[in-house]
């Protein structure tokens, strides 16, 4: 593996997004200069309640953004077929998103056993090497995760995308809803990538089942869900979904703020919303760790969500003034 020099993340660029969306944004930018604004406008919070909740972070079907067709997951059972399929996708589209495991990427801070699915961009191939781009950056419990660009051998890439025989249910839910709306995902135990196919699925995508949409309604459901950590410790498996929601909402407001006159009072409104969203994952992780020690903190959780609503509401109300769709 050879790596490019480190660079500073852009708070309004792809590396401010989540482990699925950061490299999806980089992929979309290759064919759409407005991709970052499309993603910012797509940000929403919708949840399908239950013991294993599903999350939708985008109101625009991001798999239908490419002008050339529609994105969808492809999967094969063998490494040889994976090499062939990924090479074919690069030849036809110039790039391919592959489904990696964060703990298996050599540059990742994730520890073995703590890995999660991660979309990785591959935008070149020479002989038995692949050029990988990972725009994702974050301050993780294990340390700072920086963006990466470098070359991987066949073996290195296959190691990074080696499938889990039995993925965790929350991982499958995240993959299914990675584009904002449910899409078919390949069978368990397969090497997977995202393929660009000509044409589009007929009709307007929908969220099937009982979903709660709208920021206020969804946060009310999630406040109750996380306040119950004391009796439902396994709920901590969904902390990463809350982290993704926080990243996306903070990104939206940072993206808008980058175009706002710095003398405007709206800057303070957006900044407060950004900071409050960014504090949410840390507060929930603290609550989860306390619950695991037998000290549940439901009042703290509820106060955290109340504070978030208080900060997000005024920022949300400003969205139409800056050309963004109104969000309830």
Shape: globular
Calculate the mean pLDDT score and round it.
93
Portion of residues in beta strands equals: 15-25%
Kindly, what is the distance between the CA atoms of the first and last residues, rounded to a whole number of angstroms? 46 Å
Largest β sheet strand count, sense and barrel closure: 7 strands, antiparallel
Q: Radius of gyration, Cα only, in angstroms?
A: 20 Å
Order of helices and strands: EHHEEEHEEEEEEHHEHHHH
Strand order of the largest sheet: 1-10-7-6-5-11-4
Question: How would you classify the helix and strand content by structural class?
Answer: alpha+beta
Helix content: 25-40%
Instruction: Write down how many β-strands occur, each being a DSSP E stretch of 2 or more residues.
Output: 11
If helices are DSSP runs of H or I spanning 4 or more residues, what is the number of helices? 9
Q: What are the low-pLDDT stretches, counting only 5+ consecutive residues below 50?
A: 1-9
Q: Kindly give the count of domains.
A: 2
What distinguishing features does this structure have?
328 residues; alpha+beta; two-stranded antiparallel ribbon; 19% strand
């Amino acid at each position: 593996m050879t790596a490019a020099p480190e660079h500073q993340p852009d708070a309004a660029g792809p590396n401010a997004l989540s482990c699925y969306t950061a490299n999806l944004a980089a992929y979309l930018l290759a064919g759409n200069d407005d991709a970052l604004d499309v993603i910012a406008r797509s940000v929403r919070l919708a949840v399908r309640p239950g013991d294993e909740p599903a999350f939708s972070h985008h109101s625009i079907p991001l798999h239908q953004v490419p002008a050339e067709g529609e994105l969808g997951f492809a999967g094969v059972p063998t490494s040889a077929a994976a090499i062939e399929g990924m090479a074919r996708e690069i030849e036809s589209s110039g790039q391919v998103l592959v489904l990696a495991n964060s703990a298996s990427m050599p540059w990742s801070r994730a520890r073995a056993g703590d890995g999660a699915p991660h979309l990785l961009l591959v935008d070149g191939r020479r002989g038995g090497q692949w050029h990988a781009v990972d725009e994702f950056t974050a301050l993780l419990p294990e340390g700072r995760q920086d963006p990466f660009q470098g070359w991987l051998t066949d073996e290195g890439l296959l190691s990074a995308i080696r499938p889990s025989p039995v993925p965790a249910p929350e991982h499958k839910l995240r993959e299914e809803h990675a584009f904002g709306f449910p899409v078919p995902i390949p069978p368990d135990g397969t090497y997977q990538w995202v393929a660009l196919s000509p044409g589009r699925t007929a009709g307007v995508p929908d969220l099937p089942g009982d979903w709660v949409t709208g920021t206020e309604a969804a946060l009310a459901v999630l406040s109750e869900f996380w306040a119950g950590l004391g009796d439902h410790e396994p709920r901590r498996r969904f902390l990463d979904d809350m982290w993704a929601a926080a990243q996306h909402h903070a990104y939206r407001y940072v993206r808008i703020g980058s175009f706002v006159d710095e003398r405007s009072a709206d800057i303070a409104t957006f900044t407060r919303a950004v900071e409050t969203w960014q504090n949410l994952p840390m507060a929930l992780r603290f609550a989860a760790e306390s619950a695991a020690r037998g000290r549940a903190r439901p009042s703290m959780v509820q106060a955290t969500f109340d504070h978030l609503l208080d900060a997000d509401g005024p920022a949300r109300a400003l969205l139409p003034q800056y050309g963004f769709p109104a969000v309830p």
